[in-house]
Amino acid sequence: MSLSFRDFEDFRHYDQEILREIIRDGETEMKARLDTANAADRRALTLVGFQLTIAVAMTSAAYSLVSQRQPDIELAILAIGVVIGMVAAAFSGLRSASPTLFCFPGNDPRNWHYKEWNYELSSWEKATLNHALAEQCYTLHTGLRDNKAVMETAARRTKTSLYVMFSTIYLCGFVACFVIATRMF
């Protein structure tokens, strides 16, 4: 659930210790999400490497199958099908790990200027530490919300990559078994 700044206006009335604890917790959560996102990118790139390795091996297999004295066109087409499926899966995995806008713990010092705040203050003299800390709480909330959306998109793309990969393996494996079985009997 996303909250608007109005939901944070009451925070300025909280004790400063409470506000600092909220900020500390928010920054801890943001760092944990950043670590999780980095780990997810590494997993996606490892998966892409595996998929492209299969694609290269199947390209070699297809070439070998059509280069024979009696080319095996059926299995070569099947190998090319695996190549296409793995490249499609790898593309989705690469999109998952591609650079995105991500919010980081902490705050840009410029955001501490009262004119950058969501409160409508007429001058710096009316700004209080509680106003600033409440603003920081909202900034952390919006950053965490935005990071969650980026991570969900990346997760969907990684899942798509896995689904395409396994669908390709199962479908082409089934067809290969069928082709081989029909040749034997």
Describe the fold and architecture.
The chain has one domain (5-184). The model has no long low-confidence stretch (mean pLDDT 90). It is an all-alpha fold and 185 residues long. Helix 1 runs antiparallel to helix 2, helix 1 runs parallel beside helix 3 and helix 2 runs antiparallel to helix 3 (129-184). 72% of the residues lie in helices and 0% in strands. The protein starts with 15 loop residues before the first helix and ends with a helix. It has helices spanning 16-67, 73-97, 129-184.
Largest sheet: none
Shape: rod-shaped
Q: Quick one: how many beta strands? A: 0
The arrangement of helices and strands along the chain is: HHH
Q: State the helicity in percent bands.
A: over 70%
Task: Please count the helical segments.
Answer: 3
Estimate the mean pLDDT confidence. Answer: 90
Radius of gyration: 27 Å
End-to-end Cα distance = 61 Å
Contiguous uncertain segments of 5+ residues: none
Proportion of β residues? under 5%
* Overall tally of domains: 1
Structural class: mainly alpha
Show the helix and strand layout.
Blueprint (H helix, E strand, L loop, with lengths): L15 H52 L5 H25 L31 H56 L1
What is this entry, summarized?
The protein is mainly α and 185 residues long. The chain contains 3 helices and no strands. It has one domain (5-184).
